[in-house]
Amino acid sequence: MGFFDMFKKSKQEDIASVKNKGIVSPTNGEILDISVVPDEVFSQKMMGDGFAVKSSDGNIVSPINGSVEMVFETKHAIGLKSNDGMEMLIHLGIDTVNLKGEGFTTFVKAGDKVKAGDKLIQMDVDFIKNNAKSDISPVIFTNLKENESIKVVTGKVSVLEENRIEICK
Predict the structure, then answer these.
(1) Domain ranges in the chain?
(2) What is the mean pLDDT of residues 88-114?
(3) I need a labelling partner for 29 at 20 to 30 A (CA). Which of 45, 123, 136, 159 fits?
(4) C-alpha span between 62 and 7 (Å, rounded)
(5) pLDDT at position 8
(6) Could you give the CA distance from residue 59 to residue 122 in angstroms, rounded to a whole number?
(7) Is-catalytic flag, 91?
(8) What is the pTM assigned to this prediction?
(9) E-assigned strands of the chain?
(10) Cα separation, 86 vs 114, whole angstroms
(11) What is the distance between the alpha carbons of residues 139 and 40, in angstroms, rounded to a whole number?
């Protein structure tokens, strides 16, 4: 390491320092209101409040700093827990459990520590569009307190974009 290298920060360190408690966009594409998800379990907030994404490239990264709590065997969903205890479920597409893992490549496993921006899963968007009910992916906060809700700025989004998803008290 050279003398000046100790003053440089990696992109990941910058993201981590800026977003220690924040939530960034997990993909390129579009952020949608949870109510448009074509599955009542999600759109009616039966599992919790959240938002949805429609990925344009299928690259799904961690929207938070924390740990991977579970990766479903069928690779269609992943559970995360932030460093401050917030629990999140990212469910890739609708009725994708029936694909038995086809169309998904995972890059993490349960127990892994992640920072905002770490690659979690690659989703083959075209395959999902052609073989599942929908490629809309709900992102659900599963342990919000009664007085907490989600505020989302919908529309076109870039991966790691900040200030689009907020937990309000």
Answers:
(1) 26-168
(2) 97
(3) 45
(4) 26
(5) 45
(6) 5
(7) yes
(8) 0.86
(9) 29-33, 50-55, 59-61, 66-71, 77-82, 87-91, 104-106, 113-114, 119-123, 137-141, 149-152, 155-157, 165-168
(10) 14
(11) 14
End-to-end CA distance of the chain: 45
Mention the CATH class of domain 26-168: mainly beta
What's the CA gap between 53 and 156, in Å, rounded?
Answer: 10
Q: What is the Cα–Cα distance from 30 to 80, expressed in whole angstroms?
A: 21
Query: In whole numbers, what is the pLDDT of the chain averaged over residues?
Result: 90
> b/e per residue, 134-152, with b = 16+ CB within 10 A?
bbbbbbbbbebeeeeebeb
Out of 91, 123, 138, 159, pick the active-site residue. Answer: 91
pLDDT in tens, 36-65: 999 999 999 999 999 999 999 999 999 999
Q: Which residues pair with 123 in a beta bridge?
A: 104
The mean per-residue pLDDT over the stretch 95-119 comes to 97
**Locus of tokens 């597409």:** 93
